[in-house]
């Protein structure tokens, strides 16, 4: 029986909301800050149950980051929440100076990441945020794949000391990670063992990687699928162990091909065990308005693209 099966579709942002609800009950130092998007970030229950620990900052994201940094001085654990575009691009200077450089224990939580923000359009989508955040010294970067994993990551971050960026999304997607799956920051999860190609995926592309692996199996190709939920620190040991066995790799992410997971994996391979690598990512462009399904299809962020990339990577093996 397969362990990772679709238990029904849910949005990852609701996983964040559920995680915040649980944290509010178990950790009195956890506080929440929101930039006028309570419903979108699923902060409703936290605000209702802990109004004294909830701060509505309004459309003032830079101010939100500054307040969050200040709250850490008194021992609080602030979780900030807004869209990924506003969580990173709009406030990069404040994050760099007040959070990362100062090593403040702020959890920057970003919904509506990537293309799957969809119909809100290209100006609200962001495909550069992983790159922006992973370049900051000391910043932990997490990109979760489904509801259960987002909830688990949110809870885990409260016990992790230091700046962190948690990236999740707007649409409903398959919920396939077991609710009791341990979430260990910096440790990859093996979803499917294989011998012919390693597929390393993050975020919404993890499920597509599993779908691709099943299709590849029908073609007689054995694909190993690894869920990289933590992009920084990267689980290099898991990656190198896998590619030593398979001899080639595909990386898959809902992010720009420049600056994302794929480049982190490439650096690891160059420094340790160089093998053919193919990328499934947005090829250095902005997005556009459309449904999540339309955009993922147009920009090649799906199982079909992963299958083609896997076949190409295998063909390149010596």
TrEMBL record:
Coiled coil: none annotated. SMART domains: Transket_pyr. CDD domains: TPP_PYR_DXS_TK_like (cd07033). Pfam families: Transket_pyr, Transketolase_C. Residues 10-175 form the Transketolase-like pyrimidine-binding domain. It comes from the Bacteria. The keyword Lipoprotein does not apply. Its cofactor is thiamine diphosphate. Keywords: Thiamine pyrophosphate. Belongs to the transketolase family. This is Transketolase. It comes from Flavobacterium haoranii.
